[in-house]
Design goal:
- The complex is a heterodimer of chains A (about 375) and B (about 400).
- Chain A is about 70% helix and about 10% strand.
- Chain A has about 375 residues and is of the alpha/beta class.
- Chain A folds into 2 domains: about 230 residues, no CATH class; about 120 residues, abc type-2 transporter like fold (3-Layer(aba) Sandwich), CATH 3.40.1710.10.
- Chain A has a 4-stranded mixed beta sheet with strand order 2-1-3-4, with helices on both faces.
- In chain A, strand 1, helix 3 and strand 2 form a beta-alpha-beta unit.
- In chain A, helix 11 runs antiparallel to helix 14.
- Chain B is α/β, with parallel strands linked by helices and about 400 residues long.
- Chain B has 16 helices and 5 strands.
- Chain B has a 4-stranded mixed beta sheet, sandwiched between helices.
- In chain B, helix 1 packs across helix 11, helix 12 packs antiparallel against helix 15 and helix 15 packs antiparallel against helix 16.
- Classes of the chains: A alpha/beta (about 375), B alpha/beta (about 400).
């Protein structure tokens, strides 16, 4: 009873703290939106297109660039703007379609399409290859139309249409794409990436920041006063544990709910996702109580706590997929519980994993939760009895 | 003036005695910049390890291997010859190579004859970009081959009699693609991630000074020290100037430390030192203006805490301190230019990618500097307009 009363009082106190509510509700949702919109497009090259008056063949080249699965074109009116965007890494390459491209090609004159890409910049060189493939494709059709016009007569435009028909019906030397593995090693893109990682990040960060409330209770002498009554130190520890567990579970449910309802995130098999959410809430509980018993002032908990949570989140793959970092850093990342939680979410969301598939991760998380909780309990009890 | 300095010095001493000010102002940005710089070490340079299986051993396969050795591709792709498709599949799946190309047996014979065999590209779902690149390389290679085949087929379709097929094939083989991509250098330095994340972390953590300073102001109100100062022969403006100066110096010291350390240790490029100093000064001024705003809007220490948190995270989110703003959608890039931190990051991105001298750097930084100062003036004016309330308290 005392435990529940304590938890209820702490939760009421929390609900009145608007700063905490900002971090609890607004910030996670905002980050889900921004990260979700940013962590995507890893499978496309962003290519700036400047059309300086190339004519119909130029426009059809732009349409082909648009159709290419490797390229996401972005139009620029000004070549200077496009080059600035390239410098700022907003695009990986810039294609400039020259004036009179159409007329020159019809004349049988060769045309070079300028593609800006620095030799030393590998990203840009890779984008260049993708652009070149599309240009070659168009070039083949123009070559064939000119050739047919020379050999058989007729108009260039008529033959270009004919070529399109022939190309559709012919058997060119093709490229056969074969994806050897069906299962991904990283989370899906967009909100399905940002929602689970922000769940992992914010449950932990807000619990760490929440440690400030415990420190306040301690410095205000609330615990001492409680101990003067018929309340045991054990009950106080249990009351705080219940408070933090309620907070972390609430935070989890909020993010899962917002993710599912606003962003259409599929949280996977509930039998696997449920225990994962619950265990992570326990890890957060342990971290929050530890923060409350280790830091000395509420300011320390509310400023250093989140910073620690963010570094752990970075190492654990909450801010970017661990798959893109060097393998040594992947190993180091697994020192923090975040990496195990993100691994488990990857299995559940990207590979349709069930409870058994994430058993190892769950076991590790359980160990983390137990360790943190025990450490926090011991420290808190010692503080209470001192 | 003396009172201003005394108040500023006292505030700074008080600030530095609190260890979290040192952690957040100096330690944290360096730790974050280090982690980010290591994390992205592999992604800064795109490189694909490509496996090739040559089951054809004909002229076309040899020509294809030559194109892969092309100097333009050499920096992007390194080629490993593999002996069978089975082993290629295993290596792609295991991630030993990013993708593989299989030139099938009889490719040369088939490609010049009737039924061409396809080039096979093996990719992995986790290596989408390498997959796309490999596919592009393979298509470039077959492009001329296909263009010539298409030319012959089109001429036949346009009415050239079938008997002239061999003659057509001969004529087509001398054709070349009339349109080609002509790579040109834009002459920019590649944007290294430390050049982005170093400053972005420095700015993010310096924003926390807003909360510290605002809290300390209300702390003085609570403890009555502010009232005591007002009782002394010091004008209110001097008290505020002293407090502002301490925030300014703290912010400048924090930014300066991170700038020097990231430059020396990680080789981050903050542009010409004088321009970098100007940018840091402008950012420190923005922090002072924002602190003044928070103090003038808030009524209690608690409110100051809330407002400053909202300000810090809103600016950091919008300005691009959390996400690489270049990769973000257009809307976010536009919103970033409503924040002083967004302008500073944009200026430093430009400085790091152009590598000019003082004049060029100053020209590039002029607009961002003006925007940052404008922001400080607007925010500062609002704070002053509302500050009558503060003084009367």
């Amino acid at each position: 009873m005392i435990v529940l009363a304590m938890a209820a009082a702490s939760l009421r106190r929390f609900a009145r703290d608007r700063a905490a509510l900002f971090f609890f509700v607004a910030l996670p949702v905002l980050l889900i939106v921004i990260l979700g919109a940013t962590v995507s497009g890893f499978d496309e090259f962003r290519v700036g297109v400047v059309d300086r008056g190339s004519g119909p063949l130029g426009r059809s080249l732009v349409a082909e660039l648009d159709r290419s699965p490797a390229i996401a074109p972005r139009r620029f009116d000004d070549i200077g703007d496009a080059r600035s965007a390239l410098r700022r890494a907003e695009v990986e390459s810039v294609v400039v379609l020259p004036v009179g491209m159409d007329a020159a090609l019809r004349d049988g004159t060769d045309v070079a399409v300028t593609v800006y890409a620095d030799r030393a910049n590998t990203d840009q060189q890779a984008a260049l290859s993708a652009v070149a493939a599309v240009v070659d494709d168009q070039a083949a059709r123009i070559q064939a139309a000119v050739f047919a016009t020379e050999q058989a007569g007729g108009s260039f435009d008529g033959n270009l249409e004919l070529v399109a028909g022939v190309a559709a019906g012919s058997t060119p030397v093709t490229i056969e794409l074969d994806v050897v593995d069906a299962e991904s090693d990283s989370l899906p893109e967009g909100f399905s990436y940002s929602a689970p990682t922000m769940l992992v990040l914010f449950v932990f960060i807000n619990a760490m920041a929440g440690g400030a409330a415990m420190i306040q209770s301690r410095t205000l002498g609330i615990y001492d006063r409680m101990l003067a009554g018929p309340v045991t130190a054990r009950a106080i520890v249990q009351g705080e544990t219940t408070t933090y567990l309620a907070l972390t579970l609430l935070q989890s449910l909020l993010i899962v709910g917002v993710g599912a309802l606003l962003f259409g995130v599929d949280w996977g098999n509930p039998i696997a996702a449920g225990p994962l959410v619950a265990l992570w809430a326990l890890v957060g509980t342990g971290a929050g109580m530890l923060s409350g018993s280790v830091f000395r002032t509420p300011e320390q908990a509310s400023s250093i706590g989140p910073a620690v949570g963010m570094v752990a989140g970075m190492l654990g793959g909450c801010m970017w997929p661990l798959a893109i970092v060097p393998s040594a850093l992947q190993t180091i990342g697994h020192v923090v519980p975040h990496a195990w939680a993100v691994d488990a979410w990857t299995t559940v969301l990207s590979r349709g994993g069930g409870l058994v598939d994430i058993a190892t991760e769950l076991a590790v998380l359980a160990a983390f939760a137990l360790g943190l909780l025990m450490l926090a309990t011991v420290r808190l009890r010692r503080g209470l009895l001192a | 003036m003396g009172a201003v300095l005394v108040i500023a010095a006292k505030d700074l001493r008080q600030r530095l005695r609190d260890r979290s000010a040192i952690v957040l102002g100096f330690l944290a940005p360096l730790v974050f910049a280090t982690v980010m710089s290591f994390a992205f070490r592999g992604t800064e340079e795109f490189h694909a390890d490509l496996g090739v299986v040559d089951a054809d051993e004909g002229a076309l396969a040899a020509a294809f291997l030559d194109t892969l050795e092309d100097p333009e591709l050499a920096g992007v792709v390194s080629v490993t010859l593999l002996d069978s498709e089975t082993s290629a599949r295993e290596q792609v799946d295991a991630g030993d190579v990013a993708a593989a190309i299989v030139v099938p047996a009889g490719f040369t014979a088939a490609a010049t004859g009737g039924e061409p065999a396809p080039l096979r590209v093996l990719t992995s779902v986790d290596q989408a970009l390498s997959g796309q690149l490999t596919r592009a390389v393979a298509s470039s290679f077959v492009a001329q081959l296909n263009a010539n085949r298409l030319s012959v087929a089109s001429a036949i379709a346009a009415g050239v009699p079938h008997e002239r097929l061999a003659e057509l094939a001969g004529a087509a083989s001398t054709e070349h693609l009339p349109l080609r991509a002509d790579p040109q250098s834009v002459g920019a330095e590649p944007l290294r991630l430390i050049n982005y994340y170093g400053p972005s972390m420095a700015i993010f953590f310096v924003l926390f000074a807003i909360g510290f300073a605002a809290r300390s102001f209300f702390g003085e109100v609570r403890d009555g020290t502010l009232q005591r100062m007002s009782a002394a022969p010091i004008r209110p403006a001097e008290i505020l100037a002293g407090k502002a100066l301490s925030v300014f110096v703290y912010a400048l010291a924090s930014l300066g430390t991170v700038a020097v350390v990231t430059s020396v240790v990680f080789g981050a490029d903050w542009g010409h030192p004088l321009v970098a100093v100007m940018l840091c000064l402008a950012m420190a001024m923005a922090v002072v203006a924002l602190t003044a705003l928070v103090i003038s809007v808030a009524r209690t220490e608690r409110q100051a805490d809330t407002f400053s948190s909202v300000v810090v995270f809103a600016l950091a989110l919008l300005g691009g301190n959390f996400v690489f703003v270049a990769a973000a959608p257009d809307l976010l890039r536009t919103l970033a230019l409503g924040t002083p931190n967004g302008w500073m990051l944009r200026a430093l991105t430009d400085l790091a990618t152009t590598g000019g001298g003082f004049t060029l750097d100053l020209a590039l930084a002029a607009l961002p500097l003006a925007a940052m100062l404008g922001f400080s003036v607007v925010v500062g004016s609002i704070a002053v307009a509302m500050s009558r309330r503060v003084v009367s308290r």
